[in-house]
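I hope you will forgive my troubling you with a question about protein structure. The full record is reproduced below for your convenience:

——
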Amino acid sequence: MIEDHHWPTDGEWKESVLRSIIRRSAPASVSVGRGFVVTATGCTTQLDILIHDNSHPVLYRDGDLVFVSPAACLAIIEVKSKLTTTNFRDASDQLATAAGFVRHAPGGRNIFAGLFAYELSGSRPERILDSLAASANGDMHRVIDHVALGEDHFIKWWHTTPERPRQLHESWHAYRLREMAAGYFVHNLLMHLSPDKENDQTIWFPEQSKEAHVLSRHGL
């Protein structure tokens, strides 16, 4: 309705849409909002999507806006309307800094750190993986573990190999998944939020492994 007259409003609407999609299927034990993770010494920048554990107290709440402790934080997601291979680094740096802050903090968990872009201009998976590695800067706490770029491009961080779960891997895999990138992103998030990790995942994902669609790999 407003076309391109106010891009911040367009971005806020897209964040709200993704929050609503996640909220529909998220466990009742979590809340989906936006806001800040706060410690005694500082806080993150504002997070587009902040998912927190309802068993922990909230420092501040006003509608969707929440301030929570690192112990309550389960997932953080940065949402972008459009990314290119050239401006991807700025977005990944911002998210990696927030992820490192939460994971390094006392009581911090192994959170889900995701970057979601509705559109991708250009398709250079090698450059995107290079940017993820540069943003992490050798620190496992700064790793962005899930990325959805447009309809088709999905990136996942594998701590162990997909084929042999007990074998250390520590690499990103970039996939081209026709019109399924957003679905894989959301479903991986739901698996992370699930208390029992949903041992039977066949109802969530196609039978054919996405490894058949891998384009590129990159280690930390």
